[in-house]
Write a structure and sequence with these properties.
The chain is an alpha/beta fold. It contains ten helices and 15 strands. The protein starts with a strand and ends in a 17-residue tail after the last strand.
Length: 379
């Protein structure tokens, strides 16, 4: 029995299920069958594509009828021996559809040559347009299944994002700013509209309840390098973190919660780092009240790709042997081994080539935050 405190509810573990109750918007869609959706570049609307093909088939039909009508003296109608415009369209229809009743036939040499070199290629083109459209519709599902299998076999060391709301979307944008390709990001969310938005941005999407292990398996969580847990509710974050950690023991899991008192529970569930959104926002609000300028600086640091950015980088050779305050960049912390030391920590002494620096720099297109760094304990 455990309790997860939320801003507007108290979700308690149900005695019959062993899970905390989750009566939020996600629970309404748990019964929806989960599916994987890959980003697709849509060239044009399907209805417009079908209409275009039907128009092409109609043009082929009209062209065939005009060719027959132009050489109508070389055709014979078994009904009245003459071929008019209506007879030409009738002949073109039964010929292109390979019906061939035989009531109108080419009798002259020119008409027969026209059938060989003009009518027959038009018949083939007509069939390709109509039959090709049908085959494309029938094979679309097979092609999608083959694409999914190829995607799963090639997916390795990727990033899984649970929840594609404001927090999840911002986290993905920050991670992709480090150079991570969009093909290496999988979004999991119970909303079909959210998944459509994710695939429109170029990410692969899995629609379903992330607290279920079969949904996370479809996202290949077992092969992921890092997992971002950013659902709307704290109890959902706990269950997702527990399930994800069971499926992947080595992945880096970063989770977001609304209430700070739920952070220890998330760490016990297997999260490597926990971000408290409510307290962080409150801290920024209070700082902005006391010092608007300081609040602007912190907000500038939070926004990715503009103003100031926090960057982790290795120590270059020219910086080795110097103290943190003696180098050009503004050093915040020094990562040495498994320790994160403050810039004013006396145990740092001078910088070593094996150290890594966390610095504040002016954001630019070439600025990158080094990815895949596991959280380190501080002294």
């Amino acid at each position: 029995m455990f309790h997860v405190k939320h801003a507007d509810y108290d979700a308690t573990a149900s005695p019959d299920s062993g899970r905390p109750r989750d009566n939020g918007p996600q629970s309404d869609e748990r019964s929806v069958i989960h599916r994987v959706k890959l980003p697709v570049k849509v060239v044009e609307r399907p209805l417009r594509q079908v209409a275009k093909r039907l128009l092409m088939a109609l043009l082929v039909l009209v062209l065939t009828a005009l060719v027959v009508y132009a050489d109508r003296e070389g055709y014979r109608d078994s009904a009245d021996d003459s071929v008019d415009l209506l007879d030409s369209f009738y002949y073109a229809t039964v010929t292109l559809s390979t019906t061939g009743y035989g009531d109108i036939t080419p009798v002259s040499d020119s008409a027969r040559l026209t059938n060989i070199f003009v009518i027959t290629p038009l018949r083939v083109l007509f069939l390709i347009i109509l039959v090709g459209t049908t085959l494309e519709v029938l094979t679309e599902r097979t092609r999608e299944e083959w694409r999914l299998k190829r995607w799963r076999s090639a997916l390795r060391e990727h990033t899984v994002v649970i929840g594609f709301g404001t927090k999840g979307r911002s986290a993905v944008q920050t991670v992709c700013a480090t150079g991570l390709k969009k093909e290496q990001v999988v979004v999991v969310d119970p909303s079909a509209k959210v998944i459509d938005a994710a695939t429109a941005d170029g990410y692969a999407g899995v629609m379903g309840d992330a607290t279920r292990s079969d949904v996370l398996k479809r996202a290949e969580v077992g092969k992921a390098r890092q997992i971002i847990v950013a659902p709307q509710r704290d109890d959902t974050a706990v269950l997702v973190t527990l399930t994800a950690r069971q499926l992947n023991r080595s992945a880096k899991i970063v989770a977001a919660v609304r209430e700070e008192e739920n952070a220890p529970l998330l760490r016990q569930s297997g999260a490597d780092a926990v971000i408290t959104s409510a307290s962080a926002a409150g801290r920024l609000l209070g700082l902005s009240v006391l010092s608007p300028a300081a609040g602007m600086v912190i907000e500038d640091l939070i926004q990715q790709g503009s103003g100031l950015d926090l960057v982790e980088r290795p120590v270059v050779r020219d910086e080795a042997g110097k103290r943190p305050r003696e180098i050009e960049d503004l050093v915040v912390s020094v990562v040495r081994g498994h320790r994160v030391l403050g810039y004013d920590d006396r145990s740092i002494g001078t910088l070593q080539l094996t150290d890594r620096l966390i610095t504040i720099v002016r954001a630019s297109p070439g600025t990158q935050i080094t990815p895949h760094i596991r959280p380190l304990p501080t002294d």
